[in-house]
Design goal:
heterodimer; A: alpha/beta; D-Maltodextrin-Binding Protein, domain 2; 2 domains; four-stranded mixed sheet; 15 helices; about 65% helix; elongated; B: alpha/beta; Rossmann fold; Alpha-Beta Plaits; six-stranded mixed sheet; 10 helices
Chain lengths: ~400, ~300
Amino acid sequence: MQSTQLSSLTAIRLVAGRELRVHLRNKAMIISTLVMVVLIVGGLFAANFFGNQEQSIEYGVTSSTEEVGQATQSVLESQGITVDVTTYSDEAQGRTAVSDGEISALITGSGSDITAVVNESVDSDLNTALASVIQQTKISELAQSAGVSPDDINSVYSLTEVPFESLDPPAEIDGSQILVGFIVGFLLYLGIFGGGMSVAQGVVEEKSSRVVEVLLASVRPWQLLTGKVIGIGLVSLLQVGIYVGAGVAAATAFGLTEDITLDLNAIGAWVLVWFLLGYIIYALVFAALGALVSRQEDLGSVIPIPMFIVIAAYIIGVSVAPSDPDSPVVTIASYIPFTSPIVMPIRSAYGVASTVEVFAALAAAVITIPILLWISSKIYSNAVRRSGARIKLKDALKAA
Amino acid sequence: MRLDIDNLTKNYGDLKALDNLTFSVDSGEIFGFVGSNGAGKSTTMRIALGVLDATAGEVRWDGRPIDFASRQRIGYMPEERGLYPKMKVGDQLTYLAKLHGLSSKAAETAMEEWTERLGIAERRKDLVQSLSLGNQQRVQLAAALVHDPDVLILDEPFSGLDPVAVDVMSNVLIDKARSGAPVIFSSHQLDLVERLCTRIGIIRAGSMVAVGTADELRARGGDRWALTFTQATPNAPWLAGWEGIDVLETSDKSITFLVTQPGAQHSLLAAATAIGDVEFFGRARIPLADLFRDAVTTAPKES
C-alpha cells in the first residue's frame, strides 16, 4: 500500500467531492429542489393563465340600438375586451337569446332611452361602457339644443390625461420587470442564504462530531475550508441553475416572453454570476462564524448579523426598489459587496443600472473575496480545532 | 524508528496542562499511557497529531521534528470519537484513506480489509450513526488503520468495548507493533495495559512521574514480600519492630512488607514458623493499580 502526501489540489478535490456526493444524495435536498421547481413553473403558469385570460362579452342589439351598440363596443374593445354583437331585427328573438344564455344582454330602446334586457343583472363592464355611451349621447343632445357642436363636446371627453412636465423623470418599470426582479431577488436570496447556511452547518457538523480532529491530521484547515466552500457551492450553483433554467424555460414555453422587452437568458446568466459571488462571500463569512461554535444549537448565536444583512438586501431589492428604483438606499446597496449580489441584478432587471455600474459592483465584490478568504481562513483555522464553549471572534483572530 | 516526546509544555492561560513532559516510544513497542482524568494524556496526543500547538517542546519522528507530511503517516483515534454520523461506514473509511494519500483502488481495498478484520464488514453500507457504540468504535479504529500508518496513537481505544472487541483490538495493536510501528495508547484499564504494553508511562499533572516496563515500575515500589498463616495468629511476630522491614499491611492472618535490608525477611520467616503454620511466604506482586495510585497521589509535583 503506497501512500504519499496529498497535493493541496487533491486534498481540496477530495473534500469538495465528498460534499458533492453527500449533498447530491441528500433526499431532503432533492425533494426541496423539486418542490421549488414545481413552484416556479406553477407560479409562472398561474401568472400566464390569470394575466392573459381573455375577457369577452356577447350582447345583442335591435335595429334601433345599433348605433349605441357600436359605441359601446368601441369603449369595451379599448379596455381589451373582445366583443361579439348580434343584431336582432325581432326584439322577441333577442329576448329568447338572452334567456337561453346565448348573449348576456340585449340592448333595447332608442336614442338615449335605453334598457338592457338581461337574465339576472348586467355585466359590470358592459354596464360602465353602456352608461358612459348613454351619458355622452345625452350630453351631446343637451349641447346640441344649447347650440354647442357635439364634436367640441367629444374633444373635451377625449382629454383623459393632464399634460405634464417632469423635472426628474422616474424610471419606467413595467409589470413584467417587477415580476422578473422579484423572482431574481428571491432566487438569489434563497441560493446565497441557503448555501451559506449549508456551509455553516457543515462546519459545525464536523466540529460537533469531532471528525475535524481526524481530518486535520491529514488536511490543512484552509484546504478543508476551501474544499467545503467549493463542494457546497457547486451543489448550490446546480440548484440555482435548475431554478433559473426552469423559470426561463417555463416563461418561454408559456409565451410570457413575447410581450416583454427583457432578455431573460441574459438575466438568467447574470443571476448565476451574482449568485456565485454572493455565495462565496457569504460562505466564507458563515464558515468562519460556524467554526466558532461546537454545536448546531449554538449556530443561532453567531449568524444573526450576516443573516440580517442578507435579509435586508432582499427587502431593499424586492420592496424598496420596485416603488423607487432610483432611491439612494437601493443604489448604495447595489455597490456594497455584501448586498450587491442581490440588489444589483434586481436593478439590472429594472433596467436602471448601466453596464458601467454593474461592472463596478462586480469588481467590488470580486476584490472583497480574497480579503474575506484571508480573514475567514485565519478565524477558521484557529477556531475549528477548539471545541467546547463558543469562541470569541476576537480570540480567533488573535490566536495565530 | 522512534517517536520522541521532548519537553512538551502546554499552557492554557495560568493552567499548565503539560509541564516538560518527556518520553519516547521505539519501533515495535506498545506504550501504555496512564494517568488520572485531566492529567494531560489527550493533550499530549493531540499535540503529537498537530491538532493542538505546544507552548514549548517538540515531538520528533525518526529524529526530525514531526511535520505535516510525517503526521499523515500516523493512525489516530481521538478521545472523543470523530466520524461523520450521516455517512456510510465504507464511504467514510475510503474517504479517510484517500485523504491520507491512497489511490481510490487502494483505499477501497484497505477499507474492505479492515472492516473484515474488525468484524464490521456487514455494516459497510450502514450509516455510522445507526451502529452501536462498540461498532462505531471499531469503525473508528479502522479509520486509524486504513492508511497503513507507521505510528499508532490511540486515545482510550478500549473504553466501552466488550471482551471480544477488546481481544480484537488487542491483537491489532500487537500485530501493528510486531510490524515495527510504535504504538501509544491511553487507558484506565490497568490490567489490559499491563498485559499488552512493553512499557508504561504514568502521567500526573502534565509530567511523567514514572516510565518503564511493568517490572521496572514494580521495582520502584521496593522489594515487596508477603507472609500468610494457615489460620489467624493474633500475636504474630511482626507486631514488634523489625530492623530492615517496613510493614505495609497487616491482618490476623497475613502481612505485606517491604524489605529494606536484604535478608531481613528470613529472620521474620524464622520467627513466624516458630509461632504458627506458614502457608505462604514469598515476593508479592504489586497490582499496577497500587503503583498507579501511589504514583499519582504521593509523587511530588515538579514545577
